[in-house]
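Quick one, C-alpha cells below:
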C-alpha cells in the first residue's frame, strides 16, 4: 500500500492490542499500533498475579512496557498517538490520529478497552478527583491524608486497599446497601482500621474551591452530610472506549462490540479483541488470547480478499 499503508490497523495498546501486533507481525503482516500508554490500562494494576509465568506477580506498568517493547521489536509501527476517527472509505480502513495523520490498512482490530464510568456522580470540576489509586495515590504519601473512594465493587475495593498504604484514612462511599465486591476483598478491607465504610450513601457534590476538600453525601434516608477528603478516587465501573469508531457495527445495549466466532464484527474486516468486545471474562490473559486470535483471523480475511 501507499505511504502510511499497512496490512493491519490496531486501535489500542493494551494487552489485546499488543498481542495482536506481535502475532500480526510474526504472521507476516505489517501492523500499526495506536495508543499513547504502553500496556493500556494495565498500568493501573499494582501487582498482576494471575498471569502465567510471574510467580508472586508483576507490576502492571512493568508488564505493559515489556510487552509493548516486544511488539516494537517484532517490527510494529507505533506512532504513540491516539486514533481520533476510524472509518472505511470503500476500499480500505482509515485511521486518523490526533495529529491529523492518516493510516490505511486492509483490516482493523478494535482493542481499545474501556474508559472510567462517571455516570451518577457530580461533574468533575475540581482538582483532586482521580481514577487510578496506583498512579495518583503516591501523591499523598507521608501527608496523613484522608482519601475517599466512590464505588462498592472489586475496583473500589482494590482502590481502598492500595490507598490504605499511603493515606491516614480512607473513606469508602457506596450507594448500595451492601458491598458488591468479592468476599475475600471485603474481609481484607474490614480488617483495616484506617478504612471507613459508608453504605446507602450517594455523592451529590464536591466541596471546596478550585481544589476539592470534601464531599457532600446524601444517605438513603435523605439526610445530607459532609465528609472531609483531600482527594477522591472514582471506582464505579467502565464503559466501552469506542467513540472513535465511525463504522456502523452491531453492539450490545452497553456498547460492547459483538463479534462472531472469529472475533470479526458485523462489518467485514473489522475485528474486536479484549475488554471492548462482548465477552464474559475480562482479564489480561483473555485479552491476550483475543489479540492472538483476532490477528490470526485478520490474516485469513486479508488473504481471502486478495484471492
Amino acid at each position: 500500500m501507499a505511504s502510511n499503508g499497512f496490512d493491519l490497523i490496531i486501535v489500542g495498546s493494551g494487552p489485546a492490542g499488543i498481542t495482536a501486533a506481535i502475532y500480526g507481525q510474526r504472521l507476516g503482516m505489517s501492523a500499526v499500533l495506536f495508543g499513547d500508554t504502553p500496556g493500556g490500562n494495565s498500568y493501573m494494576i499494582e501487582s498482576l498475579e494471575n498471569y502465567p509465568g510471574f510467580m508472586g506477580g508483576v507490576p502492571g506498568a512493568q508488564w505493559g512496557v515489556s510487552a509493548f517493547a516486544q511488539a516494537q521489536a517484532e517490527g510494529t509501527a507505533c506512532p504513540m498517538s491516539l486514533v481520533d476517527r476510524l472509518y472505511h472509505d470503500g476500499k480500505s480502513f482509515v485511521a486518523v490520529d490526533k495529529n491529523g495523520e492518516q493510516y490505511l490498512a486492509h483490516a482493523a482490530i478494535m482493542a481499545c478497552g474501556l474508559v472510567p464510568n462517571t455516570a451518577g456522580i457530580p461533574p468533575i470540576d475540581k482538582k483532586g478527583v482521580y481514577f487510578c489509586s496506583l498512579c495518583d495515590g503516591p501523591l499523598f504519601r507521608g501527608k496523613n491524608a484522608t482519601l475517599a473512594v466512590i464505588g462498592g465493587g472489586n475496583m473500589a475495593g482494590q482502590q481502598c486497599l492500595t490507598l490504605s498504604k499511603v493515606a491516614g484514612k480512607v473513606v469508602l462511599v457506596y450507594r448500595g446497601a451492601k458491598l458488591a465486591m468479592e468476599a475475600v476483598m471485603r474481609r481484607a478491607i474490614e480488617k483495616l482500621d484506617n478504612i471507613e465504610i459508608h453504605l446507602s450513601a450517594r455523592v451529590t457534590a464536591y466541596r471546596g474551591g478550585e481544589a476539592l476538600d470534601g464531599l457532600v453525601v446524601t444517605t438513603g434516608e435523605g439526610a445530607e452530610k459532609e465528609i472531609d477528603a483531600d482527594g477522591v478516587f472514582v471506582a464505579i465501573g467502565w464503559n466501552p472506549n469506542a467513540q472513535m469508531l465511525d463504522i456502523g457495527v452491531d453492539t450490545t445495549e452497553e456498547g460492547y462490540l459483538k463479534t462472531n466466532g472469529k472475533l470479526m464484527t458485523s462489518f467485514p474486516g473489522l475485528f474486536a479483541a479484549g475488554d471492548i468486545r462482548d465477552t464474559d471474562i475480562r482479564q489480561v490473559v483473555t485479552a491476550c488470547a483475543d489479540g492472538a486470535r483476532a490477528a490470526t483471523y485478520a490474516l485469513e480475511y486479508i488473504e481471502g480478499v486478495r484471492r
